Amino acid sequence: MHAWPASEVPALPGKGRDLRIHDTATGGRITLDPGPVARIYVCGITPYDATHMGHAATYNAFDLVQRVWLDTKRQVHYVQNVTDVDDPLLERAVRDGQDWAELAERETALFREDMTALRMLPPRHYIGAVEAIPGIVPLVERLRDAGAAYDLDGDIYFSVDADPHFGEVSGLDADAMRLLSAERGGDPERPGKKNPLDPMLWMAARPGEPSWDGASLGDGRPGWHIECVAIALDHLGMGFDIQGGGSDLAFPHHEMGASHAQALTGEHPFAQAYVHAGMVGLDGEKMSKSRGNLVFVSALRRDGVDPAAIRLALLSRHYRSDWEWTDQVLADAVERLARWRAAVSRPDGPSADALVEEVREALADDLDSPAALAAVDRWAALQGAEGGTDEGAPGLVSRTVDALLGVAL
Predict the structure, then answer these.
(1) Model pLDDT for residues 212-236, shown as the tens digit of each residue
(2) Distance of CA 45 to CAs 89, 244, 323, 361, Å?
(3) Element (H or E) spanning 152, and its range?
(4) Backbone dihedral region of 317: left (phi > 0), alpha (psi from -120 to 50 degrees) or beta?
(5) Which tens digit of pLDDT belongs to each residue from 183-214?
(6) What is the number of H-type helices and E-type strands within the chain?
(7) Which CATH topology does 34-277 take?
(8) FRET label pair with 193: which of 96, 268, 303, 359, CA 20 to 30 Å apart?
(9) CA distance 271 to 258
(10) Quick one: which of 118, 64, 120 has its CA closest to 308?
(11) Alpha-carbon distance 333 to 324, whole Å?
(12) What DSSP element (H or E) covers 232?
């Protein structure tokens, strides 16, 4: 599966800071020192609807991670999946009378268009669940053969008791896990499971649903968590730098994925840091497909909203915060974009050397994009009030905003 085209990232003078980022597993900030190649895995969409602002906020956060690392003169090995077969996708296809594969292909294409418009840097590997199945099957067989998985009426379940580190990613107790499992795709009430929290690794073929040859597992399709594990292990290996996604993925998805990988390899941890973006709400509720309270990137673009303004709206809130999308958030971003463009359109201005370092420091400090925006605001205000004589300043500000914030002025 192909990703989307990359926008050029301008080179800035000097060198950026190492990233200090909040790790869900430890509950505090850690400083990452990835070496010459930083490795990141971000969980992708289930493509049964267009990209909404919650998606965009999450991918914007991890785009900032890439930009901070690139500014430290590292390479970035970024991997993202697409869950192009799963219950929500199949249910939407049945509801709308569509072929599930065509629905997935169409919505994935729209997601690529939105990511291109928002100037999100693409992953090096963009892998669909379906194309990953040949690599998933042997992992499930290995878990079963090692006693870390078991058969239940033809379905294969992972035993969470097989991983002594289970629970360390989310830090939740068993009762909280059970509640979230029921809400987020698990089946804790199914009779016959060894532990109510055990997740499915391989679902035996159901009538009217797609299935694939699972060798000794029988025909079926993969569970949600093992999909990402197979892709991450194949392309990044154990101990990669960041596992990322929305905060609703900490449990069960990232918890279960870590346990799958750790049981498979005998190594710990699966990722050095588990990084989670907050939820975006609308009208007092979390923005979600099930509630139908969505603001779509593609719809805003069709209405003529500049993608740079959409990106500035996302950047105006800290990535870990839960926040509300409103018309005023977007209006403020449109006004900020106009001020910045006016400021850099002048032939000279106040020195921007300190601004570059302010933006670098803000982003290295747990991706503090509001502080980075405030630094640019101060330069733009000074430009408007006093101007300056540095002919290179407007260009340097434009390159800084482009390289570190992904906003083209």
Answers:
(1) 999 999 999 999 999 999 999 999 9
(2) 11, 13, 21, 31
(3) strand 149-152
(4) beta
(5) 999 999 999 999 999 999 999 999 999 999 99
(6) 13, 14
(7) Rossmann fold (3.40.50)
(8) 268
(9) 8
(10) 118
(11) 14
(12) helix 224-235
Residue 307 and residue 3: Cα distance in Å, rounded? 19
* pLDDT single digits (tens) 36-66: 999 999 999 999 988 999 999 999 999 999 9
CA dihedral 168, 174, 178, 181 (to 10 degrees): 0
Cβ–Cβ under 8 Å, residues 275 and 65 = yes
CB 305 within 8 A of CB 297: no
Amino acid at 159: S
CA-based end-to-end distance of the chain: 31
pTM of this structure = 0.96
364 Cβ neighbours under 8 A, 6+ residues apart: 16, 17, 18, 19, 20, 68
Whole-angstrom Cα distance, residue 257 to residue 250?
Answer: 10
Question: Strand (E) positions, 247-384?
Answer: 271-277, 280-282, 285-286, 323-324
Helix, strand, or coil here: 286? strand
Structure tokens at 175: 């009762």
CA Rg, the chain, in Å? 22
Cα(290)–Cα(392) distance, integer angstroms: 50
- Indicate the domain borders of the chain: 34-277, 303-405
CA distance 32 to 38: 9
Beta-strand ranges (E) seen in 15-85 are 20-23, 28-31, 37-42, 75-82
Query: Which residue(s) pair with 125 in the sheet?
Result: 79
CATH number, span 303-405: 1.20.120.640
Task: Take residue 88 and report the two structure tokens written for it.
Answer: 């929500």
Q: Which two tokens stand for residue 160?
A: 């969470």
SS3 content of the chain, % helix, strand, coil (to 5): 45, 15, 40
CB 95 within 8 A of CB 38: no
- 3-class secondary-structure state, position 14: coil
* 190/199 Cα distance (integer angstroms): 11
Q: What is the token pair recorded at 363?
A: 């982003």
What would the two tokens of residue 104 be?
């997935």
Residue corresponding to tokens 């049945």:
94
**HEC sequence for 253-282:** HHHHHHHHHHHHHCCCCCEEEEEEECCEEE
Q: Interior CA angle at 202 toward 199 and 204, to 5°?
A: 120
342: helix, strand or coil: helix
Nearest to 280 by CA among 325, 328, 249: 325
